[in-house]
Amino acid sequence: MTSVVAPPSRGSRGAARSGSQRRRSVSPWVYVASVLVAGITLAPVVYAVLSGFRSNGQLGANPVGLPNPWIFTNYTGVLTSGSFWQYALNSVIIAGVTTAIVVVAGVMAAYPLARYRFKGRQALFNVFVIGLMFPLTVAIIPLFLMVRDLQLTNTYWGVALPQAAFALPMTIVILRPFLMALPNELEEAAMLDGASRIGFFWRILIPLSGPGMVTTGVLAFVGSWNGYLLPLLLLNDPKLKTLPLGVADFSTQYSADTAGVLAFTSLAVIPALVFFLTMQKRIVSGLQGAVKG
Question: What is the DSSP string of the chain?
Answer without folding.
Answer: ----PPPPPHHHHHHHHHHHHHHHT--HHHHHHHHHHHHHHHHHHHHHHHHTTS-HHHHHH-TTSPPSS---HHHHHHHT-HHHHHHHHHHHHHHHHHHHHHHHHHHHHHHHHHH---TTHHHHHHHHHHHTT--HHHHHHHHHHHHHHTT-TTSHHHHHHHHHHHHHHHHHHHHHHHHHTS-HHHHHHHHHTT--HHHHIIIIIHHHTHHHHHHHHHHHHHHHHT--HHHHHH--SGGG--HHHHHHHHHHHTTT-HHHHHHHHHHHHHHHHHHHHHTHHHHHHHHHHHHH-
